[in-house]
Amino acid sequence: MPDESTLREARREAAELRELARAEPARYLPRLAVCLHGLASVLTESSERLEESAEVLGEAVDVFRQLVELDPEGHRPGLAATLGRRALVLGLLGRRAEACDLAREATGLLRELARREPDLHLPDLAWSLTNLGNHLAELGRHHDALESIRAGVSIRRRSGDRDGLASALGDLGIKLGEMGRKDEAVVTLREAVDLFRAATPHTRPGEHYATVLALIHELHQLDREAEAAPYVAEFEALRTSIAAADAGQLRLMEALLRRYGYTVTAEGRFRRNQSTTGSTTPTPTSPSPLDRVHAMNDQALRLVSAGNLDLAAETLRDAVVLCRTSPTMTTDRALALARSLHNQGLTNGWLGRHTEALGSADEAVHIYRRYLKANPGRIRPVLADALDSLGNRLAALGRHADALVAAEDSVVLFRQLAEDDPATHLPGLARAMNNLGIRLTDTGRHDDALRSSREVVAIYRMLRAYDPEKYVYGPIHALSNLALRLARAEREDEVLAPTMEAVDLLFDARGPHHASNDVASLAESLTWLAWYLRKHGHRGEARTVRRAVDALRR
C-alpha cells in the first residue's frame, strides 16, 4: 500500500503544477508530465486505486500530446512511454480494447523513433511490442499477439540485452502455452529460465519466479513430471528469497501460484492442488474433453437460434478455454478449437464486439490452413466458411481490402466444393458470393459486384425450386443487394422487380429471425430502396416497401 503522506504530497504537487501550466504551458507542462507519472506510480501500488491511476495517466497522455505539438522531437519518447504505461493499467482493469489501442499507438511511435536512433529506442520498442502482444492476446488475437511478442524477442536477441530477452521469452512461452502449443512453450520457457539464472546481479526475481512456475505448469500438463522436479526445487528457493526481501511482491506471486492450481505448504514445499493432479480413470459414461467441446458448440448454436447471444458467447468462451488447457494439441483438438473460435467470432460479431470477433475468426482461419494439406477433404468446407466469416469481420472494422481477399478465397473454395457436390455446397457458395458482392462494392468494383449479385440470385432461384421453405432470408438479401447494385449502375428500370420480389418473400416469411439474418442491415437496405423507388415515381411500391421495413423492425 502507498504511504498516505507520500500520496498527499504527490497530489498537492500535481494540483499546483496544473495551475502553473495553465498560465505558462511551455515552462510547466514538462514538469507536470513528470509529476503525473510519479503520482500514477504511487497510485498503482494499490489495486484499489488503479482506476485513479488510469485517469492520471490519461491526463499525462494529454499533457504529452500538447508537448509534442510544442516540440515533436523532444517529447515523442515521453508520449510513447506514457501510452504504454496507461495501456498496462487499463489491461489490469480489464479495459482491453482501450489498452490495445494505446499499446499499438505507442509501438507505432517507437518504430519511427527506433528507425532514426536505434541504439536509443530499440529496447523501448522491444518492450512495447511485448506489451502490445499481451493486450492482443487478451482480445483473443493470439496469432497477432505471437507475431508482436516474437518481434520483441528478435530485437532483444540482436541487441544482446540478455535480461530483456529473458523477460520477453517468458512472455512468449506463456502465450504459446495458452494457445496449446505446449512443446514450443517448454523450449521457450527453458531458454528464459537459463537466462534468468545467468543474470548477475539477479535483478528480476519476480519474473524469474513467474517463468519457472509457467515452465513447471507446462511440463505437468505434458505429464513430464521428472523433468519438472528440478524446476520445482528452483521455484522453492526463489520463493524463499522473495519472501525474505519483499512481502508485497510475494503476495502477488502467491496469487499467480493459485491461478496455476498450486499451493505452498507451511514448510515452504511446492504442492499441486488435487484438481490439477492426474484424474481418475473416467467411467464409460463420462464425456471426453473433446466431446464436451463439441457439445458446448452445439449448445451455443441452439442458444443463438433462441436469441440468447450473451449466454452463447459465454459458452463458446468456455469451449475455447477447455481446448487451450488440454495437455496435448492433437489434430482433432486443434480442429475443435478452430470450430469454437469460428462460432465465437460469429457470435461476437452479431453482438457488435467486432474487435474480439476478428481475433477469433482470424485464428480459426490460421488453424484450418495449418491442417489443410494433411486433410483437404475435411478442412476445405470449414475453411471456406471461416474465410467468409473472416471477410465479414474485417469489413466490420473498415479493413475492406483485406476483407475482399478473404471473401474471394472463400468463393474459390466453395466453387470447387459445389462442382463436386452441388447439393451440399451450393447454399454456401450463394452466401459467400452474396458477401463477395458487398466486398466488391466496398472497394469500388461495382461492375464485378453486379455480376456477382446476378449469379447469387440465380443460385438461390435454383435452390428455392427444390426447397422454397428452407431458402427465404438468403434470397431476400440477395435480391435486395441486386437492386442496390442496379441502382448504383443507374439501371433504373431494373431496380423495381428484385426489390418487390424481396418484399414479397419477406411478407411470406414465418418464424423468428436468426441472428445471422442481419435484420438491421436488411432494413437499412430496403429503407434506401423505398426512397429510391419513390424518387423514380413508384410511390405505391415505395409504400409497400416501407410497410415491409416497419414489420421487419417490429
How is this structure best described in words?
The protein has 554 residues and is mostly helical. It has helices at residues 4-23, 25-44, 50-70, 72-92, 96-116, 118-138, 142-159, 162-178, 182-198, 205-221, 225-245, 247-259, 289-305, 309-324, 331-350, 354-372, 376-396, 400-420, 422-442, 446-466, 473-488, 492-508, 519-535, 539-553, and strands at 262-264, 270-272. It has a two-stranded antiparallel sheet. Helix 6 packs parallel to helix 8 (162-178) and helix 16 (354-372) packs antiparallel against helix 17. The chain is globular.
Q: Quote the average pLDDT.
A: 84
Number of helices: 24
Shape type: globular
- What structural category do the secondary elements indicate? mainly alpha
The number of E-state strands comes to 2
Percent of residues in helices comes to over 70%
What is the spatial order of strands in the main beta sheet?
A: 1-2
What about the largest sheet? Answer: 2 strands, antiparallel
Write the layout of secondary structure elements.
Blueprint: H1 4-23, H2 25-44, H3 50-70, H4 72-92, H5 96-116, H6 118-138, H7 142-159, H8 162-178, H9 182-198, H10 205-221, H11 225-245, H12 247-259, E1 262-264, E2 270-272, H13 289-305, H14 309-324, H15 331-350, H16 354-372, H17 376-396, H18 400-420, H19 422-442, H20 446-466, H21 473-488, H22 492-508, H23 519-535, H24 539-553
Antiparallel strand pairs: 1-2
